[in-house]
Amino acid sequence: MAEPVVVFDNVSISYVRGVEAVSNISFRLGPREVVFLLGPNGGGKSTILRAIVGLVRPVRGIVRVFGVDVKSFREWWRVGYLPQNAATFFERMPISVGEFLRASRVVKGGLSPVEALRLVGVEYPEGILDLRIHDLSGGNLQRVMLAASLVNRPELLLLDEPTVFLDQGGVAAFMQLLERLRAEWGLSAIIATHDVAALSTLASRVICVNRGALFDGDIGELVNSEQLCNIYGFHVYLVRHGH
Predict the structure, then answer these.
(1) pLDDT, tens digit, for every residue of 70-117?
(2) Helix (H), strand (E) counts: the chain
(3) Strand-pair partners of 158
(4) Which of 21, 72, 88, 129 sits a CA distance of 20 to 30 A from 226?
(5) Which pTM was predicted?
């Protein structure tokens, strides 16, 4: 049986002593698996991703990446990470798109800036290499951030609200890209979102969290509004769209 790419073993995390941001979360991510974290803002989705890349430490439980305790993991080029609101990091930095992508590439076999931008659907990528990141449109800004997470050809991709600023066509293209990379690179991915409508066309396995894990299974099982109401705290309808 293949070794899991990510293991969360009864993990609890606190930012403030005595207050747990997530409590007793357990799950496994297998090779070539794409899992969606669904839940409200403040429900713990970002915290889970931050724990996988070692930015926060559990107060209880163990996080493993490629079979290694995250505290000892060092092969970070194998992981691509797109945090929420990543573009805000560059609001006061006069760094160009090309400089940012070249700096993000740390392995010899990684993608060039043009290859990475073309991969994520930027038209005429050569035309934006010299632009400052904070001068980009919302859609291209998000694509550049996604390109940076892919530039080292990672085996694990962690994305926090990656479809922000993307229109419906952009979201569809993004999902097609994930399927392609799963087939060609053997990519595994965890994608945090609160976009229920988008999930109805994209997801297979979904983990629903609101401080604790409330559901882990196929999106087809998460069909009634009462279940989603328990997750979000208010009435939500899940509408499936055709492909």
Answers:
(1) 999 999 999 999 998 776 777 677 899 999 999 999 999 899 999 999
(2) 7, 10
(3) 81, 190
(4) 21
(5) 0.88
